[in-house]
Amino acid sequence: MDLRLHLRTFGARTRTTCRYPARIRRACGANRTVGGCGRATRKTRPGKAHASADFYAQHEIVRPTPAECAKTLVDSTNQGTICTVCEDGWPLGTQASYILDDDGQPVVRLREGAVHTENVSREPRCSLYVQPADQAGEANARVTLIGRLEDLEENERRIAKIKFEAEHQGEWGVNKVKSCDLYSRMRVERIYYVGGYGTTATADIVSGEDFLQACSDPLKDCARDIRQEYNTRRLADLLRLCAEFAGLRDGIESVEMINIDRLGFDVLACVHGEMKEKRIQFPREMRDERDAKSNLTMMSQLSWERERNYTPAPTASLSNAVEE
Predict the structure, then answer these.
(1) Upper half-sphere CA count for residue 144 (Cβ side, 13 Å)
(2) Alpha carbon of 300 to those of 118, 161, 245, 317: distances in Å?
(3) Of 81, 103, 205, 301, which is least packed with CB atoms within 10 Å of its CB?
């Protein structure tokens, strides 16, 4: 579609009656006259639904691989639970801080004289359970890395200490970085990854090699902010996206964007009292935050046009107007 033509749609104004429950209408400001992108609009005559929305039609569900999801999850936080084997053979789980080295392997910080430090000095086999701090419960993704801890070389210990001080600055108490801290690299042998909403929620076994070769999702650092934006300020757009691209047109009592990655995003909606999980694809892979926000805005605009049965002005006449 001609870019100038689509920019024309951002200037359309109309007023409609929201069919969603009052609580959602209040949250998304449905009593105000707004456009799909939050800009001023103008009244238009109803026309044929915009054909370009068909470009986003869903044919198959595409997600990042389990290895990519596991790498993204581990790379999005720096805290986990390390499980070591006690002298009597019983497993012990304790809190642990970590960073990732240049190869993507976790480097765990251990306290001198701590029980888990004594355990791994005797038995290096251990596991590291990771779940982001802003997620909780079985409904969300989590990963368990299984491998062996090994000592770092002198130069590697120095680099690890510098990275820990930079990444964990401001921490206090037991989490404060100390000069006597010990650092060990975890050689990951295999991984148990369990996806959250929108997946089968069964464990995928990922090899250590696949984990190392995988890349974190390019939206990992901005995903939380995008979710928050669409779950609050742009809830009206999220409702339109659900209607147009997920088929959730009536009876929505609540909706929330629960995950977003370079290939699409997941929503959880309560429809007529029933919870439904839906996956909405992007038309292509997103490269970064700007790319994702631009495509979400475009998809929101197309949903807005479909909802109002809006037809943009012919390309030819718009071209003439631009030339004039």
Answers:
(1) 12
(2) 55, 46, 10, 25
(3) 103
